[in-house]
């Protein structure tokens, strides 16, 4: 397979944009990306477009990529429409990487775009629920003990993540040995990072007390410990090493691109993350000790701490220490979610994976402004998507290096 | 890029199966495919799953592949969910081909599955309409003059195809110089072929009179000249040449796999078909004169005749002659739609492209039973999908050889 680089990355700010449509968001991200690369759109040979719920929110299924790219001038090239729940954009990137690594194309676009917020919040939540096997939705809700009015107000996935993190004691105030204060500290860190990121949905730092005292959602989680509903688009230009050299373009190399699905029988995210990470480290010849920064899937705050362990950033059980010792904060040895993560940068599901990739690419290019990680050489992204039972449906891990 | 072969192909019968679900259809096609190959499912390293409207019909979006493959034992491998309207399955096959040609995988599954029929036919038709840019749906319907009760009973795409085939005189009883009798003859041929295919939705031959006198749909088209709504699944196992040799598996080589999108400004299918075919012929080093059989996108009967010309099976204007001289009938020099085509084998949108590929693979393997083409060496599939304005949104052309 050929060597592949990312020479352009761009995104909209993530947030709730009730007045903006999918097309508008996609166009902004695409323009930003080609400007970032300094390349004309005419060089793009194929586009891989991730989106998760537009069909259910807007009624536009099946040719969403063609529809949102229509006015960019990209129509005519191959356009592939991709879904994989919250990992849709990582899947689009993965397909783009394969197509360039194969030798078929020299320059392709990966785009993730999502419009999840809707004046009818119940509609947003229903659409989001299509990221589980809906034939067992009622059974899952029953097992989670979701009933009553408060359950209608929150995403199923907050309960589901809690149960996956702590199958034996889902109602406990600590999760897998992680205390509420430690969960809150993840949120403090990610909101602090988000405050430095002009593209983040939430750009205000919060204190530990504010996190702990913010609106209760479920179990130990307050609203600041849960990723928000949102909209946005993010994109990357993926090119062959040879094309980059020929055009004088710079950008990090893609060292590994791994996509797997969960086996469906684990009541945990851990096995999928470990399998995907192990394969990525092997593919890249890079170990967790080499990583300088990471963007991970902090859909709920405690997940970030267990992900440290599953990605082998530390020994099992040492996740909270990594956080408390500020290793994973900006300025630490291995900053995690410098963008603000899903908690603060936001989580427009079909765009999130590319939002992570954009952040890592910008960091490795030294373009991350106030949140720049010094001397970073190697970055990782980890992005989960959807649920089969109490297991994850999709898991993507990518590795990049300068 | 590596040489790639198809060593297994399988499908359900296409038809209206109100009591069968997507999962049931997918499982049957997958089992049929691995049995056809004589290979265990444990060899499959990734799955590319095409579907077009399940989100709108069933509410299951975004992880449809994981849901339908859940009980097959394939969960755990990378699963990519793909949409491209009526070309969804060809797009899934195209991605599978790239992933094997790239060297990333040795053995992958491409699956197309669709459940379009619903007790509420209006719901099926609404879901199908998501294959256009829905922001201009009202304008398209206005331009097509679709109004009144009869328009509610038929698919938008019959009117749209007529307009694309005959932009200057959409109401004319002839289309692009093709007479009603010639259109009817396409239907007679394809229903005759379908009568020999146990997997076809319609398995009864029809006479020219029966076609002409069947229920009127729109313009010159009767119901026998229009592809039906339907359900079904079809799949293929795509492997590297080296894997096939090592495992002692046989199957045709994939000589070309081309996907493009329409440019959005043509009021015709012709430019997209010509561009995709030209690229496929170049990629394969094979010309139209080398083709022994083809499966093409006869969504409406007259389209098949213009497709002959756009694929360069004959000179411009000679399409009707090719049909009338029985060149494209079983027993002729270049049989087209030996499966029965969209008209008789059926058109469950997200499965159709793989239905075409299954037919060509079986023919090249000598497994086509009563409809076997003798001494065939080279086969072509052509599959269009969705509409941007009055242009096609996606177009796929594949070439296979023994």
Apparent shape of chain A: globular
> Total strand count of chain A, please?
11
Assign the CATH superfamily of the largest domain in chain A. Thiolase/Chalcone synthase
The major β-sheet of chain A equals:
5 strands, mixed
SS class of chain A: alpha/beta
User: Biggest protein-protein interface?
Assistant: A-B, 56 and 55 residues
Helical amount of chain A: 25-40%
- State the oligomer: homodimer
Write down the CATH class of the largest domain in chain A. Alpha Beta
In percent, how much strand structure appears in the residues of chain A? 15-25%
Physical arrangement of strands within the biggest beta sheet of chain A: 1-7-4-2-3
Question: Order of SSEs of chain A, N→C?
Answer: EHEHHEHEHHHHHHEEEHEHEHHHHEE
- Number of domain units of chain A: 2
CATH structural fold name of the largest domain in chain A: Peroxisomal Thiolase, Chain A, domain 1
CATH architecture of the largest domain in chain A: 3-Layer(aba) Sandwich
Give the helices and strands, then pairings.
Two copies of one chain form a homodimer.
Chain A: E1 4-11, H1 22-37, E2 46-50, H2 54-58, H3 64-69, E3 79-83, H4 88-101, E4 107-115, H5 121-128, H6 137-144, H7 149-152, H8 156-165, H9 180-195, H10 208-213, E5 216-218, E6 221-222, E7 231-240, H11 241-247, E8 253-260, H12 270-284, E9 293-295, H13 301-310, H14 319-324, H15 341-344, H16 349-365, E10 378-388, E11 391-401
Parallel strand pairs in A: 2-3, 2-4, 9-10
Antiparallel strand pairs in A: 1-7, 4-7, 5-6, 8-11, 10-11
Structure description:
- The structure is a homodimer of 402-residue chains.
- With 402 residues, chain A is of the alpha/beta class.
- Chain A has 2 domains: 4-118 and 231-253, Peroxisomal Thiolase, Chain A, domain 1 (3-Layer(aba) Sandwich), CATH 3.40.47.10; 131-227 and 259-401, 3-Layer(aba) Sandwich (Peroxisomal Thiolase, Chain A, domain 1), CATH 3.40.47.10.
- Helices cover 38% and strands 19% of the residues of chain A.
- The first copy, chain A, is built from 16 helices and 11 strands.
- The first copy, chain A, has helices at residues 22-37, 54-58, 64-69, 88-101, 121-128, 137-144, 149-152, 156-165, 180-195, 208-213, 241-247, 270-284, 301-310, 319-324, 341-344, 349-365, and strands at 4-11, 46-50, 79-83, 107-115, 216-218, 221-222, 231-240, 253-260, 293-295, 378-388, 391-401.
- In chain A, strands 1-7-4-2-3 form a 5-stranded mixed beta sheet.
- In chain A, strand 10 and strand 11 form a beta hairpin.
- In chain A, helix 9 packs across helix 13.
- The first copy, chain A, is globular, with a radius of gyration of 19 Å.
- Chain A starts with a strand and ends with a strand.
- Chains A and B meet through helix 2, helix 3, strand 3, helix 4 and strand 10 of A and helix 2, helix 3, strand 3, helix 4 and strand 10 of B.
- Strand 3 (79-83) of chain A pairs antiparallel with strand 3 (79-83) of chain B.
């Amino acid at each position: 397979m050929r060597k592949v680089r990312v020479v352009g990355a761009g995104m909209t700010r993530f947030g709730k944009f009730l007045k903006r449509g999918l097309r508008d968001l996609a166009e902004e991200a695409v323009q930003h990306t080609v400007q970032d690369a300094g390349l004309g759109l005419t060089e793009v040979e194929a586009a891989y477009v991730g989106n998760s719920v537009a069909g259910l929110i807007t009624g536009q299924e099946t040719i969403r990529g063609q529809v949102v790219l229509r006015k960019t001038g990209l129509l005519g090239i191959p356009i592939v429409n991709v879904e994989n729940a919250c990992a849709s954009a990582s899947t689009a990137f993965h397909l783009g990487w394969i197509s360039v690594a194969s030798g078929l194309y020299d320059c392709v676009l990966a785009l993730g775009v999502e419009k999840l917020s809707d004046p009818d919040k119940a509609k947003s939540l229903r659409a989001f629920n299509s990221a589980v096997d809906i034939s067992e939705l009622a059974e899952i809700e029953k097992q989670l003990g979701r009933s009553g009015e408060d359950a209608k107000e929150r995403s199923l996935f907050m309960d589901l993540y809690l149960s996956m993190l702590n199958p034996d004691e889902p109602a406990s105030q600590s999760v897998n040995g992680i205390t509420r204060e430690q969960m809150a500290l993840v949120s403090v860190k990610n909101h602090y990072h988000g405050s430095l990121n002009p593209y983040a949905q939430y750009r205000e730092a919060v204190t530990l007390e504010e996190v702990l005292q913010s609106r209760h959602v479920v179990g130990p989680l307050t609203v600041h410990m849960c990723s928000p509903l949102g909209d946005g688009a993010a994109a990357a230009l993926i090119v062959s090493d040879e094309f980059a050299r020929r055009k004088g373009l710079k950008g990090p190399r893609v060292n590994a691109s791994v996509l797997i699905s969960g086996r469906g029988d684990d009541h945990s995210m851990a096995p999928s993350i470990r399998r995907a990470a192990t394969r990525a480290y092997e593919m890249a010849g890079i170990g967790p000790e080499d990583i300088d920064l990471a963007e991970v899937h902090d859909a709920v705050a405690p997940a970030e701490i267990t992900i440290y362990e599953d990605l082998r950033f530390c020994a099992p059980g040492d996740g909270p220490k990594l956080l408390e010792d500020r290793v994973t904060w900006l300025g630490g040895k291995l900053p995690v979610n410098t963008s603000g993560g899903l908690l603060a940068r936001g989580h427009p599901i079909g765009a999130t994976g590319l939002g992570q990739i954009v952040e890592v690419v910008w960091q490795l290019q030294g373009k991350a402004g106030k949140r720049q990680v010094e001397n970073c050489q190697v970055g990782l992204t980890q992005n989960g998507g959807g649920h089969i039972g109490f297991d994850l449906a999709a898991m993507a891990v990518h590795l990049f290096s300068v």
